[in-house]
Amino acid sequence: MRTDKTNYSDFTGWIDEPDDVQPPLDGDLTCGIAVIGGGMGGMAAALRLAERNQDVVLLEAEFCGYGSASRNGGQIAGAPGGDLRMLSLQSPKEMPIMTKLADNAGRYVEDLIKTHDIDCDYVANGLVWGAVSPLMMLRVRTQAAILRAFGGHGTVGTREELGLPVGFVGGMRESTGGMLNPGKLARGVRRALLASSARVFEQTRVGDVRRTGSTVELTTPHGTVRADKVVLATSVYGGEWDITPKNLATPLYVIEIESEPIAPERLAELDWTSRSGIITQHQLMTHYRLTERNTIVCGVRQPERGRTYPLPDRVPDPRVVRDMGKDLADRFPSLSDVAIERAWGGWIGISPDWLSIAGQVGDNVFYAMACNGHGLCQVPYVNRQLADYAVDGEMPEDLAGIWSDATKFPPSMSLLMQPFVLRAIWGLDRFNDLLNGSRTLARRALRRGRRGAS
């Protein structure tokens, strides 16, 4: 696909910036509970605290919904992310907990949409673990069996049975979730938050977080917040402060690309009747989805490791965007002449064991790390539960299942996610594509479809 006129952005392609950005903190204040971070996690926590009549302040460096809350692929997942084969060997006791939590998280976001009447183009058509070759279909069936063993649910089927586009062999559709516009979702939650009793300060970057006796002191450029309790809802950005447990998150920069609008008759040739989003079963997964504006959004494929804090603002690497455009052309040969209209990216965090995790520092600083590439549901759900725990000290069951008392974590994920390792895994995925002939299969399926149509 053509990338010569692609628009590169450090924000998101899903939605424009809000025209009512809230003023920054100017002066000192005190509060009962402060929430740092205005992504889906921070907004969910602050909204819940406001619902419980807490004196809550939220501080966001840009504006609520600026970060990964609106930069992702817009997939409501109802199953754990990552390679379930590896996770089942590495964390067998945690897998039933994570399976239940993931399903509850998907249903929580669906309820959030209904409760606040958020128009975000949500379609509950599931998320499919897609196979681009017979060999990859074996992996799908193995993963599906593991999911069922831990209490999860999904429907395994052929391409035709699941309504997947030509070029795919089959897959497994998750029982909960679907596709939406994540920018519109974040904007709708932001609107609900601004209408609540929470005090929201945007354009307010927190420079330091310190526990001082029975309170926590948050330093910003133009004022200080002193809170009885603090929720760190900053995902990967919490690594900027000494108070955050060491190795809690490994930063990865991930990219989304979006095609130009495609004529309906050309989309119909793909036979993507379910319009379900698809994540491949590569080691570095790639996801594809159709949008309400008749475009295709594709993501990840080549994550890039962040090395130092503070994490830099940046736009996608054109080299990576060209590689992703080539993949789209291989996967959908009939659309190889279509242009990539825009590309955007952002930082996500990978937890030490690729599972959601939550904990606290002392008795009044609470944190969570629940992204791992499947955070659109799990991040707000876990942070909502964290808010309840911060208020009454009673730990919800799902939160208890991922709770950790560690003051620092092993550097295993940080050591694994080295640039040369990520590049090697990308190369292995491409080698396997060559061996299993997925590009050839896609072209053969296209020719068969055209012969059938004629």
Explain what you see.
- There is one protein chain.
- The protein has helices at 40-51, 68-71, 84-90, 95-115, 134-149, 159-162, 182-194, 264-269, 318-331, 375-392, 397-401, 412-416, 419-436, 438-453; strands spanning 7-9, 29-36, 56-59, 75-76, 127-131, 154-158, 170-174, 178-179, 199-201, 208-212, 215-220, 223-232, 250-259, 277-280, 286-290, 296-300, 304-305, 340-350, 357-361, 365-369, 403-404.
- By secondary structure, it is of the alpha/beta class.
- The strands form three sheets. Strands 1, 5, 6, 7, 13, 14, 15, 16, 17 and 18 form a ten-stranded mixed sheet that branches. Strands 2, 3, 9, 10, 11, 12, 19, 20 and 21 form a nine-stranded mixed sheet that branches.
Please supply descriptive tags for the structure shown above.
10-stranded mixed β-sheet, alpha/beta, 9-stranded mixed β-sheet, 14 helices, 21 strands, 454 residues
Write the topology of this structure.
Blueprint: E1 7-9, E2 29-36, H1 40-51, E3 56-59, H2 68-71, E4 75-76, H3 84-90, H4 95-115, E5 127-131, H5 134-149, E6 154-158, H6 159-162, E7 170-174, E8 178-179, H7 182-194, E9 199-201, E10 208-212, E11 215-220, E12 223-232, E13 250-259, H8 264-269, E14 277-280, E15 286-290, E16 296-300, E17 304-305, H9 318-331, E18 340-350, E19 357-361, E20 365-369, H10 375-392, H11 397-401, E21 403-404, H12 412-416, H13 419-436, H14 438-453
Parallel strand pairs: 1-18, 2-3, 2-12, 3-9, 5-14, 12-20, 19-21
Antiparallel strand pairs: 4-8, 5-7, 6-7, 10-11, 11-12, 13-16, 13-17, 13-18, 14-15, 15-16, 19-20
Helix pairs in contact: 1-7, 1-10, 4-10
